[in-house]
C-alpha cells in the first residue's frame, strides 16, 4: 500500500520588537504598496505554490506582542520553518536587542535548530547601511542564514 505524499509547506514567522515594521513589511509585500494604516498585526497570509520560486505554498505569520502572549510566540516558533527577526535600523536599542533578547530567546525555544534571517527595516530613514554592525551575529549564531536591510516603504 503506497503512502500519501506529504505536502510540503513553508511557514515563515516574523517577530521582533514592536514598531520595527513587521506588519508593514507583510502588508507591503502582499499589496505591493506601503499601507496607509497599519494594524497591530497582519492576519496569516498564504502565498500559493504557483507564485513562489520553489513551487511550495508559503505561509507568512506576523507576531505582535500587543495582541499575543509569549506562549503564543513559543507555539509559533515551534511551527515555523524559518524565523525572521525584524529590527529597526534607525534604533540602536532595536539592533542591540537582537543579541540581548531575540536571538537567545529564539535559540532557546527552538533548540537552535531553526534558520533565522535578520531583517533590518526602515533603511529609507538612514543615510548609510548599518548592517556591518550586526554581521558578527552570523558568527555567534550559526543558524543566522543571512542579514538584510530593506524598507517596507520602498
Automatic annotation (TrEMBL):
GO terms for molecular function: GTP binding; GTPase activity. The lineage of its organism: Eukaryota, Metazoa, Porifera, Homoscleromorpha, Homosclerophorida. This is Mitochondrial rho GTPase. PANTHER family: RHO FAMILY GTPASE (PTHR24072). It holds the Pfam family Ras. InterPro entries: MIRO_dom, P-loop_NTPase, Small_GTPase, Small_GTPase_Rho. The keyword NADP does not apply. Keywords: GTP-binding, Nucleotide-binding. Gene3D superfamilies: P-loop containing nucleotide triphosphate hydrolases (3.40.50.300). The keyword GTP-binding applies. Signal peptide: none annotated. Residues 7-154 form the Miro domain. It comes from the Eukaryota. It comes from Oscarella lobularis.
